[in-house]
TrEMBL record:
Organism: Mesonia ostreae
CDD domains in the cross-refs: DHOase_IIa
Record-given protein name: Dihydroorotase
GO molecular function, one term: dihydroorotase activity
Transmembrane domains' residue ranges: none
Entry keyword Oxidoreductase: no
PANTHER family assigned: ALLANTOINASE (PTHR43668)
InterPro entries xrefs: DHOase, DHOase/Allantoinase_Hydrolase, DHOase_cat, Metal-dep_hydrolase_composite, Metal_Hydrolase
Class of this enzyme: hydrolase
Domain Dihydroorotase catalytic residue range list: 57-237
Length: 420
């Protein structure tokens, strides 16, 4: 099959075509030609006003529901949502039912990879049943395709278990993730602990519940070696701890959820459960420190931390609602509005190496792996922009800039029809 992409602007700093408007011809999934104008007849032609493309985007923390929670999201619709939101590769979390803590659970995902445009990279459970007691069959899951090991949103409370995990995975060069939360301090809290949480009568989680856990984990990493990833940090001190650890030469990386860069705990005044996430939205000072950490490279990558949640678990009293927000659909528009186009694209692509995800250069002879987008145009994110089965979107009624238009990956073209 031949695909001709007309008059597209390339955004990839490592490509010789960066910031150039070109025609691109793709034959059987490989970039055949890149020129100022190509007149060759193709099976399909893509021509959209102000069309831009970059290397395909990667999200390191995505949750769906299948199997076990299909009422929240199916794998088929979840992957279609990711594709139309501009993502060609995702790290899929283990929080399904049963928990993805053995190789056979990952084989199901690999079968889906054979027929979908979006490539799924399993983030397998670190411990059996994600209970934090015994190490799961991590080597078997590595051979079945797992790129990292993580008990989603559950801290590794036993420090010896984290020590063993970091030592063991060095044998096959994989990444251990440790959620930054000391549960004994967080207890039953569910928002940021400060004066506001007291006034609102909401149970708080102090910032140092995150920071103590990170400090402990960094000390363990310094002893063991290995590779540690700390997902979705949320506090100013967390950024400082990781910055200092990197200066010491520790092999640590971290991510931040996009919504933590855009919102802070001022939103809690509405008691809108869409803003109930874990870690909780923190103070404005924390928010500003996170943005600074992204800009100076201390924070390695951003994630949507996409977590569909059915209405029965969200449209309830705030304290009873489950944590989570969807974020795939709003990711590009939010980052582009906050940080600008080139920084947004950098953040959406640069985490691949850390997770052993193949990158792709926009160059003749290379495999075609593209994300399409239009970076222009401000709009209010509304219900019609939601593609997920669940509608728990924190970005509803928020102003975004630019839209993802789809992808070309694994020889499949998926284009998001324009909406109002």
């Amino acid at each position: 099959m031949k695909l001709l992409i007309k008059s597209v602007k390339v955004i990839q700093s490592s490509s010789e075509f960066h910031q150039q408007k070109v025609d691109i011809l793709v034959k059987d999934g490989v970039i055949s030609s890149i020129k100022s104008k190509i007149d060759e007849v193709a099976d399909e032609t893509l021509e959209i006003e102000n069309l831009h493309l970059s290397e395909g985007w990667f999200d390191s923390s995505v949750s769906f529901g299948e199997p076990g929670y299909e009422e929240r999201e199916t794998l088929e619709n979840g992957l279609l949502t990711a594709a139309k939101s501009g993502f060609t590769q995702i790290g899929l979390n283990s929080n399904i039912n049963p928990i993805a803590d053995h190789a056979s659970a990952l084989n199901f995902l690999q079968k889906e990879n054979e027929k979908q445009a979006v490539r799924v990279y399993p983030i397998a459970a670190l411990t059996k049943h994600s209970e934090g007691k015994d190490l799961a069959e991590v080597y078997d899951m590595h051979t079945a395709g797992a790129v990292s090991f993580y008990d989603y949103k559950k801290p590794v409370s036993n420090p010896n278990l984290l020590k063993i995990a970091l030592q063991y995975v060095q044998n096959f060069d994989r990444l251990v993730q440790s959620f930054p939360l000391d549960e004994s301090i967080a207890h039953k809290g569910y928002v940021h602990e400060n004066k506001q949480s007291t006034i609102l009568g909401l149970k708080g989680i102090p910032s140092f519940a995150e920071e103590l856990q990170i400090s402990r984990d960094l000390h363990i990493l310094e002893y063991t070696g290995g590779k540690l990833h700390i997902p979705t940090i949320s506090t100013k001190k967390a950024v400082e701890l990781i910055r200092e650890a990197k200066k010491k030469g520790l092999d640590v990386s971290c991510s931040v959820a996009i919504h933590q860069l855009v919102f802070n705990n001022d939103k809690l005044d509405t008691f809108n459960s869409h803003f109930k996430v874990m870690p909780p939205l923190r103070s404005k000072e924390d928010q500003e420190a996170l943005v600074k950490g992204v800009n100076d490279g201390t924070i390695d990558l951003v994630t949507t931390d996409h977590m569909p949640m059915d209405i029965e678990h969200k449209k309830v009293e705030f304290e009873n609602a489950l944590f989570g927000t969807i974020g795939l659909e709003s990711a590009f528009g939010a980052l582009n509005a906050l940080l600008g186009l080139e920084k947004a694209i950098d953040l959406l692509t640069r985490g691949k190496k850390r997770f052993h995800i193949p990158s792709s250069l926009i160059k003749e002879g290379e495999v075609a792996n593209f994300s399409f987008f239009n970076p222009k145009g401000n709009y209010i994110f509304a219900p019609q922009h939601i593609l997920s089965s669940s509608k728990n979107a924190m970005f509803l009624d928020h102003s975004l800039t630019g839209k993802a238009l789809g992808i070309y990956a694994q020889k499949n073209l998926v284009i998001h029809e324009s909406d109002s």
